[in-house]
Write a sequence for this structure.
């Protein structure tokens, strides 16, 4: 159910309450429109923590770049709170065009991961990520299960592959040297992540 608040005082109180409790951690602003994201369930948070672990091992700890478990991304240095998005995972390599403004990142990181939750608007953010010049985007959907890989082509993120449990397609990231595919598991499908340089494998 969508809700529009036309009472400015109530709006300020609601936002202040979310800030005080930390419930606003993943809230966003889309061209001045405050967007409240649905709460992440346990499975969603597990995906995020495991991708952070993998990317830290491949990028963060070797000193090849920065890995963030959610970061404010904006297209402006000043007044960024009027227009920003918060991906689940963001990776900026050392030669990235991203500018760290302390409160937020300005510009597009090399790789983003978004895990879809019911009721969120992840897919509505893809065009904006392309305009921000994000190099690659992984979208993990669980309704039904699939992994979409998008890659920047000119000024747009274009889907270059979709892996699901039926097609056994291997997705090849170019920003980080990993391959991914969706495998059947006992309780739910799992994402197989393989480092191309070492063949080290993780199951997410």
């Amino acid at each position: 159910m969508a809700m529009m608040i036309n009472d400015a005082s109530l709006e300020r109180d609601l936002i202040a309450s979310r800030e005080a409790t930390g419930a606003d951690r993943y809230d966003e602003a889309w061209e001045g429109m405050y967007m409240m994201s649905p709460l992440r369930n346990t499975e969603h948070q597990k995906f995020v923590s495991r991708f952070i672990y993998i990317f830290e091992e491949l990028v963060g700890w070797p000193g090849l770049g920065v890995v963030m478990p959610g970061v404010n991304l904006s297209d402006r240095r000043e007044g960024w709170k009027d227009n920003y998005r918060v991906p689940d995972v963001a990776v900026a390599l050392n030669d990235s065009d991203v500018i760290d403004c302390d409160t937020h990142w300005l510009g597009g990181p090399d790789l983003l991961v978004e895990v879809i939750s019911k009721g969120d608007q992840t897919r509505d953010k893809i065009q904006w990520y392309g305009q921000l010049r994000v190099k690659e985007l992984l979208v993990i959907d669980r309704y039904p299960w699939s992994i979409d890989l998008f890659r920047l082509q000119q000024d747009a993120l274009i889907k270059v592959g979709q892996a699901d449990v039926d097609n056994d397609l291997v997705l090849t990231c170019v920003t980080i040297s990993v391959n991914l595919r969706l495998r059947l598991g006992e309780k739910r499908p799992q994402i197989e992540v393989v480092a191309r340089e070492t063949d080290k494998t993780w199951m997410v």
The mean pLDDT is 85.
